[in-house]
Write a structure and sequence with these properties.
The chain is an alpha/beta fold. The protein folds into 2 domains: 141 residues, Aspartate Aminotransferase, domain 1 (Alpha-Beta Complex), CATH 3.90.1150; 254 residues, 3-Layer(aba) Sandwich (Aspartate Aminotransferase, domain 2), CATH 3.40.640.10. It contains 15 helices and 17 strands. Strands 4-12-11-10-7-5-6 form a 7-stranded mixed β-sheet. A 4-stranded mixed β-sheet has the order 1-2-3-15. A 4-stranded antiparallel β-sheet has the order 13-14-17-16, covered by helices on one side. α4 packs antiparallel against α11, α5 runs parallel beside α11 and α13 crosses α14. The longest helix has 23 residues. The protein starts with a helix and ends in a 19-residue tail after the last helix. The relative contact order is 0.15. The structure holds pyridoxal-5'-phosphate. The site of pyridoxal-5'-phosphate has 15 residues, from α6.
């Protein structure tokens, strides 16, 4: 196969889901032979409105037909104006938010790079506090704030000026890790200098669907405010409705100084990223964070249509809440029917995890078997021990149920396998998952 002979070893998702895909509609993928797969991966949380969402696609096609600019550097275009107006009208104004908008390169990692640079420039300080199990991207700056050793184990030691602190729940429910951070910040001999910013995900996606409590988020915000430290929320995976609300942080009552968005922002999988910043932080010089692809006008068109169509009221938020309950209830029933799997359900909105806390190897195996059954669902977490469900927010209930049926079959098959049955591995202490199943 040309993929094996020509494509770099770095390829990844295609190893876990080895089909040659050809079409995609709504919450389904189709391979070349026409076989259908229910898609609970959704472009790693990019396809919140489904594959080829017909309304959004229509606007994109109309724009193409009209010879609208596709590539625009950062020139003023009508498509960009309409996007900014929609962002203001449907998101900022109703929430009472006042952010300037920066268009970095169109990937999540570029937005995080820009956010970290901006925080450093605005404060004149170099340090960033990141959290255990955090994931912020694969370029040098954002990788420095990414916890996973597999990605970090690179020669050169270029991951400077980032300190890791324990995320909410890292030591179990009894330990308030915000107090731990506070102690480090306030102790002049802790070895942790006053940072430019604290960078966090409200729900850690790649790190294992670890949900920060609203109380913890509020404490972190206060801690930052009291010490003149900026708070950056990386909402690249949890934002754009994934957890129910457009921003994942608003239900916690916090207002970050800087926010990064990407993934589902481009609405049908078109690359787009933004950095939102409180106006007084906009200390960039012209072109200081430059890039050729800062004006993906096709993505602006798609994003604008998604904002107009899905964010003019709270219907989508209610839909996500309903579907979240449905998925979580099914997963709970599954864990009760299969107690020997010792799995735990957690998450917010349609960012749901099934954590195999005691038998971490099961997650990968269930994902493989689910794929054989016709379901695409990925694993995440420090030990790849969590199945992560990221269906499109518009997945019809019957497809959600069908996906859960396939998952159940896969789990039963995995449990029947000899190696799963006789697994007597005692999980090492760091493997023990201490995150509570948090309700929202
Ligand atoms: N930040 C978060 C929270 C993410 O989940 C991701 C990707 O999964 C990134 C940043 C990096 O985004 P990208 O892969 O587009 O560079």
């Amino acid at each position: 196969m040309i993929f094996n002979s020509r494509e770099s070893q770095v390829r990844s998702y295609c190893r876990a889901f080895p089909a040659v895909f050809h079409r995609a509609v709504g919450s389904c993928l189709y391979d070349e032979s026409g076989r259908r797969y229910i898609d609970f991966l959704a472009g790693a949380g990019t396809l919140n409105y489904g594959h080829n969402n017909p309304e959004i696609k229509k606007r994109v096609l109309e724009y193409l037909q009209s010879d609208g600019l596709i590539h625009g550097l950062d020139l003023h275009t009508r498509a960009k104006r309409e996007f900014l107006e929609a962002l203001e009208k449907f998101i900022f104004n109703p929430l009472g938010l006042d952010y300037k908008v920066q268009f970095p390169g169109p990937t999540g990692t570029n937005a995080v790079e820009a956010a970290m640079k901006l925080a450093r420039k605005a404060t004149g300080r170099a340090g960033i506090i990141a959290f255990t199990n955090g994931y912020h991207g694969m370029t040098a700056g954002s990788l420095a704030a990414t916890g996973n050793t597999y990605h970090r184990q690179f020669p050169g030691g270029i991951w400077g000026n980032v300190r890791f602190m324990p995320f909410d729940g890292y030591f179990g429910p009894e330990t308030d890790t915000s107090a731990y951070l506070e102690k480090f910040l306030d102790d002049p001999s802790s070895g942790v200098d006053k940072p430019a910013a604290v960078l966090l995900e409200t729900v850690q996606g790649e790190g294992g669907v670890n949900v920060a409590s609203f109380a913890w988020l509020a404490r972190i915000e206060k801690l930052c405010r009291d010490r003149d430290i900026l708070l950056i929320v990386d909402d690249i995976q949890a934002g754009c409705g994934r957890t129910g609300t457009f921003f994942s942080f608003t239900p916690a009552g916090i207002t970050p100084d800087i926010v990064t968005l990407s993934k589902a922002l481009g609405a049908v999988g078109l690359p787009l990223a933004v950095v939102l910043m409180r106006p007084h932080l906009d200390c960039w010089e012209p072109g200081e964070h430059n890039g050729t692809f800062r004006g993906n006008n096709l993505a602006f068109v798609a994003a604008t249509e998604a904002l107009r169509r899905y964010w003019s009221d709270d219907k989508l938020t209610r839909t996500v809440q309903h579907k979240s309950r449905r998925v979580r209830t099914r997963l709970r029933i599954l864990t009760e029917r299969c107690p020997q799997a010792e799995a735990v359900v957690r998450g917010r909105g349609l960012m749901v995890g099934l954590a195999f806390t005691q038998k971490p190897h099961l997650a990968k195996r269930v994902s493989q078997l689910a794929f054989e059954e016709g379901l695409v669902v990925e694993t995440c977490g420090g030990h790849d021990h969590v199945l992560k469900f990221l269906p499109s927010l518009l997945t019809p209930d019957d497809l959600l149920d069908e996906g859960m049926d396939l998952l159940e079959q896969a789990l039963h098959r995995a449990m029947e396998e000899k190696d799963a049955q006789i697994s007597t591995l005692v999980a090492p202490e760091e493997m023990l998952d201490v995150h509570l199943d948090k309700e929202i």
